[in-house]
Amino acid sequence: MARATKNVRKSGRRHPFATVALVAVGLLVTGAAYAGFSQTSATAEIDLNSASTISQGEKLFGANCATCHGAGAQGTKDGPSLVGAGAASVNFQVGTGRMPLAFQGPQGMVKPKQFSEEQTLQMAAYVASLGPGPGLPETRYLKGDGDVAAGGELFRINCAMCHNVAAAGGALTQGKMAPKLTGVPATHIYEAMVTGPQNMPVFSDTNISPQEKADIISYLKYIEEKPSVGGLTLGSLGPVAEGLFVWIIGLGAVVALTVWVTAKSN
C-alpha cells in the first residue's frame, strides 16, 4: 500500500522544466505587451516643441544625417536642405526606412527602418524647429472613416495616373516608380500628400483639404480590405497584364492542345 501511494505522488510531480517554460512564456507575453504599449503611446508622450526633444533630435541628426544634409541641415552637394521641410517629411522618410539612403539612386526605396519611433520623432522635432513646414497629421484624419466614394473620385483624378486606379503602383521614367499604397500606414499616406516626396507633387490644404485627404485614405483602406469580386486581380495592373495573361496562357494552351492532338494522330 505504501509503495502504491509513493508511485501516485511521483506521477503527479511537475516536470523540472515546467517552471522554466512558464517563466519564459510570461516574459514573452509581458515583453510583447510592453512593446505594443510603448509603440502606440510614443507619439503621445513626446512633445515636439520640448527643448529636450529638439536637443536629442539634433544629436541624432548630427550623428546620422549631417554627412549629406549638413551640420545645420542647410544641405550639401549630396543632400538637399531640410530647413522648412517640416516634421511630416522627416517622419515619412525616416519612418518608412527611405532615409538614410542605402545607396545613391533614382529614388529612395522602402526598407526596414533604422530608428525607433521615439528617435524618429525627435529628429522630426529638430528639423521642425529650423523653419516652418508641414507638421504631423492629426489623428482624426487617419481613422479611415471618411467618405469612400468621394475619396475614390479624388484618388482617380489626382493619384491614379501614377499609382494605378487600384493603388498597385506603376513604373515612371528614368528608373523611378510610384510605389503601391496597399499596406501603407495612414500616417505615411497623409504625410506623402503634404510633403511630396521625390517625384510626387505636393498636395497642400488649398489643393486638397485635410478632410479630402482623409477621404482618400478611407478609399485606399477600403480597396485594401475588400475582396475582389471580379476574380483574379492579376496584380491589378490593368489591360496590359490581362492581355499578356491571355496571350501566354490562352495561346500556350492552344499550342499545347495542337501538339497533343498531332502526337495522338501519329
From TrEMBL:
List ligand-binding residues for heme c 1.
C65, C68, H69
Per UniProt, subcellular location reads as: Cell membrane
UniProt: heme c 2 binding residues: C159, C162, H163
Write out the PTM section of this UniProt entry: Binds 2 heme c groups covalently per subunit.
Keyword check for 4Fe-4S? no
Q: Where are the transmembrane segments?
A: 244-263
Kindly give the Pfam families that the UniProt entry links to this protein: Cytochrome_CBB3
Q: What sequence ranges are listed for the domain Cytochrome c? A: 52-131, 146-224
Topology of this chain in the membrane = Multi-pass membrane protein
The UniProt keywords, alphabetically, are: Cell membrane, Electron transport, Heme, Iron, Membrane, Metal-binding, Repeat, Respiratory chain, Signal, Translocase, Transmembrane, Transmembrane helix, Transport
Which first-to-last residue range defines the signal peptide? 1-35
Can you tell which superkingdom this protein's organism belongs to? Bacteria
**What reaction does this catalyse?**
a quinol + 2 Fe(III)-[cytochrome c](out) = a quinone + 2 Fe(II)-[cytochrome c](out) + 2 H(+)(out)
Q: Which InterPro entries match?
A: bc1_cytC-su, Cyt_c-like_dom, Cyt_c-like_dom_sf, Cytochrome_c_Oxidase_Subunit
The record's GO molecular-function terms, alphabetically, read:
heme binding; iron ion binding; quinol-cytochrome-c reductase activity
Keyword Glycosyltransferase listed? no
The primary location reported for this protein is: membrane
Q: Name one GO cellular component term.
A: plasma membrane
What are its E.C. numbers? 7.1.1.8
Q: What class of enzyme is it?
A: translocase
- Subunit details: The cytochrome bc1 complex is composed of a cytochrome b (QcrB), the Rieske iron-sulfur protein (QcrA) and a diheme cytochrome c (QcrC) subunit.
PANTHER family linked: CBB3-TYPE CYTOCHROME C OXIDASE SUBUNIT FIXP, CYTOCHROME BC1 COMPLEX CYTOCHROME C SUBUNIT
Instruction: Provide the protein name.
Output: Cytochrome bc1 complex cytochrome c subunit
Q: Which organism is it from?
A: Leucobacter viscericola
